[in-house]
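Can anyone check this?
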Amino acid sequence: MLGCLGAITACSSPAHEPAVDGPAAPTAAASMSMTGALPAARLRTALLQAADLPGLPEQRPHVDATVTTEQPPQLGLCASAGPRLPHQSANLYAKGTTPGQATVFESVGVYSTAADADAVYAVQAANPTRCPSYDAGGTRVRVADLAAVPVPAPARAVHYRLVTPDVVSGDVRTLGVSGRIIVLISGYGRPPAGQTLLGYQSGLLAKALLQAGTAAG
């Protein structure tokens, strides 16, 4: 399925639940410390909380305070996933109990500085334009519905959908940056009544940026 194309580690396909193990172990190039690093307990509070995800009772957070330079490979599309700058990450996977209900995968990256986060976001947010259509493991993937998401300044955000000939709704992604925080919301399935999946994710992103920004200080 679409969310598992290529080397995606945080898979967003109905056939494969997203991994919540965080990024790969730090490479030799990764710093073992960074300015403004958060303890694991505080990093956990950077994630969306249970009250932010009504109707999705199965919630699996994963927090690893280890500093890494690995970037979520699914944000690379057909290009680089962004500069390998030191950061911490926390992930959350949430799903409901009704078949076909929307799932939510959240990934939060905490960087040393806003400049570092901006540098990574600039690449990741531009990749849908760089890769409007590309091949992944023999499957043609097309970017659809790419648009800016309105968020309070100075935060910035975009969202888009990845579709293939055999997956109409595809893998929906919403990406935002605020200060030294980058948040990715991705998923698939049926959103709450009266909402589109892109609109649902945009609402979650606004909450997520605020939550993570408060935790990072």
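Reply from J.R.: I decoded it. Residues 1-31 have pLDDT under 50 and may be disordered.
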